[in-house]
Amino acid sequence: MRARLRRLYSLLRIEFGVSWRFPILEGVAAILFFGFLLNTLVSGMKANFSTGYTQSVFNFLDRLAPMMLHSGMMSFNALVLLAPILVAISVARPFEDGFYRTHLTLPVKRLTLLFTKAGLVILILATLISSAIMITIPLAYPLLPTAADLFLIIVAIWLFIALQVSISTLIAVQTKKLTATVIGGIVFWSVNMSLLGLEGAPSLAIVILNPMNAATEFIIQGFRAPVIEDLQLGLVVSLMIVVVLFILSFVIFERTEV
Amino acid sequence: MNDYVISVRDVTKSFGSVKALDGLSLDMEPSILGLIGPNGAGKTTLLRILLDLARPDSGHAQILGLDTKTESLEIRRRIGVLHEQPSFPEAVSVRDYLQDVCGLYNSDRTPETLLKLVDLEYAADRQIGHLSAGMRQRVGIALAFAGNPEIVFLDEPTANLDVESREQILDLIFELHQKSGVSFVLISHILSELERACTHVAFMQSGKIIESGKINEVISRLTKRSYRIKCSESHLLIDRIREIEGTTSARILGPASISLVTDSEYNDVKSKVEQIATSLGVTIYSLEQAATLEDAYREVIR
To answer: Which of B55, B73, B104 is opposite residue A10, by nearest beta carbon?
Structure first.
């Protein structure tokens, strides 16, 4: 057990050294929190916030919360766009720069290596976005969100990112190309975003492909849209898709020649 | 089969219409084996198959009695590898990286021990990305010894190294083999180095092993009719030497050196060469049977 932990610790350190070196991680965190700050400032500017007009703050409060949350959600959706880029750096680039050839001759299972790489992208991105959401929602909706609501949103965020990462990982191991992974991931993200704006798009499809948005809508609009059954079913289906995509990626990676 | 540290049976591997390995078989006893062949002979493909980085179309291979396809992880715990142009995390210090690699092996070796092995202690705290090509090569060699390996595969181990470092690495290989019984597979195009370090050689061509065995036996078997002529001016002599009956190849090795392969016996060759040299006013300093690995290589791929 201790030996396994030592190996995992070493693998994580190597992975951080290869794929998460400065300024990637710092950049992602900065984009996230500056994005969040910018949204808040933009909302404030629209409300004519200034020291001389304190009343406008109170007048705006009833509109501030949804605006902040909506713009925040858009920003978070945009941040998920980083997932295919980070997967390309972490999973696809090592095919091109020879990292896999060097490191797959060390005593590491291919499954563990890919799991570490894809898992770290999910872990880092989802942790950053979740923590930002945890700050945003209670600020925008004081007393409104319950612990269950927050939990639902966090689950949805992790699933959304896992979905984007799993698709990008599949593209990465199949094509072994950094550019193809980025483009493929962005195409999936664009289709996903387009679906949100489509008139009459089935709510179940939205929940499956963009659980984060659906969960947010659910929190904001209560039980009206989408219906809770759709949300629950959608999250389960989304999770199944993630699992299937990862299994496919692992099977392909296991047979891939480097 | 288990007496051999490496055993390869009828391995074939194609890339599209190109047959990289064509029914290759090889048995390697504990030794230092030099794998030699022209570019495209299949050396790297063989190495990739042994390391389970590529799968053969047919045939199978074993390392230390373990199947390369099904027991790859166990094999990788017991071997060390230096690839040609290895890839490292650039922003990490040499010490940290070696520490992490030792962690993967769960090895009790320390970065300091490994760096001492390759004489790189002074660069322990430098980032790998800031190292020179020769220093990176030495990090790669240190990496190959991180797990207390029983077999070490070294692809172009002396590339980018200066003369002194080359000597040091070749000495290290020989010492580890002698003292610890570590076996080595060396892939290199510098045959003089292989001749110095190896106990065994295997010549590859067109995806097959065409000659293998103990290095001295192979050289003496293949170079019976190869001669090296040391003279005052090789360019004056070469054309006339090519005209000697039974000559299969004659080429200039340097301004004062000629390599000659012929069907004739030593005394016949000697008298004919001396005759030609006298007529051209060229001095012959020596004419002896060539016995280098390079000559054997030329003979075998001829």
So the answer is: B104
